[in-house]
Amino acid sequence: MKTLIGLAASITLFVLASSAATETTQTPDRVEQWRGKTVMVFTPHPDDDLFGVGGTLALLARNQNRIMIVIYTNDNKGSFDLEMTSERLARIRKAEEEASCEVLGIPKENIIWMGYNDGELEYAEPKALCGQAAKLIRKYRPDVLFSIDPGEIYERWHKSDHRMAAFNTLDAVRAAEFHLYYPDHLLTDGLKPYKVPLLMFFYTAPNEANYWVDITDIVDLKIKAASKHVSQFSPSIDKYRPDWDPKDLERLTNGLKARAPKKDGRVVEAFRRATGFNQQ
C-alpha cells in the first residue's frame, strides 16, 4: 500500500536505485545480453516491480526472455479517496498493472496474483505463504529471480508488505531446493525441487548495491509504464480519476526523469546480485 502524498513522495520510490561507489560486479553474463531465459519477479504490490526493476524488465522483454510477475497483494487499501472501496481499488490496480506491463512488453497472462489484502501480508499463515511461493518457483524454474532485498548480513527495514515479501520470497527460494519441504509439490503436482541459480535484489541499501543495469535508452519507456499507475499518484490518490490532466502528467514525467538515478552519467537500476545465501 502506498501513502504517497503528492509527486515528491511518489518520486522517492523511483530513486531507490543508487549511484553508490561500490564497483560493479564484473561478469561476462550481463543482464543486457540475456536471451531466452526465464525471469521471475516477486513483488509485494502492483507497481513495485515497475519502480524496482521496470527498465531491466523492458530490456529483458525486448530480448525475448520469458518474464513472470508474481504479485503478493491486490493493493486494495492505498487511497485517500473516501468514496473508494477496497473491491473497486483492487480492480483499478489490477488494470493499471496490466497496462504498465504491456508497455514493458510483458503480457497480462504472465502476471500471477496471489491475492492477499494490502497491508496484511505479514498476517498470512506463514507455512502456506512460503509454500505458495516455493511451488511457483518449482513450477517455473527461473534462471534468475528478482525480489525486494531482505538484507545480506543484517535485516533490512521495510514497510509492512515489503518486509514480508522480502523474507518470504527468500524462505521460499531455500524451501524450493529441498524435496522434504512441501513434499506434496512432488507427490501431487510432479514438481521437482529446484535451486535458483541467481538472485537479483532490488530496493537494496546503497552501500550493498553491487550490480547496475544501464537503462538510459529505455528510461522514457519506464516512465510511460509508471504513468499507467494513475491511482498511485497525486491527484488521483486523493480523489480518483482514471486519466491524467496533461499538466499533472507533464509534472510527473519531468519529475521522474530529473530524479532518475545515475551512475557514471548513465541512468541505472541498482541491485544486489547474489548467487547464494546464508544457510545458517
Give structural attributes:
37% helix, globular, single chain, 8 strands, 280 residues, Rossmann fold, 8-stranded mixed sheet, 16% strand, disordered N terminus, 8 helices, alpha/beta
Overview of this structure, please?
With 280 residues, the chain is α/β, with parallel strands linked by helices. It has helices at residues 6-14, 48-62, 86-104, 126-140, 160-177, 184-187, 219-227, 246-259, and strands at 38-43, 66-73, 111-116, 144-148, 199-202, 211-214, 262-263, 266-274. Strands 1, 2, 3, 4, 5, 6, 7 and 8 form an eight-stranded mixed beta sheet that branches. Helix 3 links the parallel strand 2 (66-73) and strand 3 (111-116). Helix 3 packs antiparallel against helix 7. The longest helix has 19 residues, at 86-104.
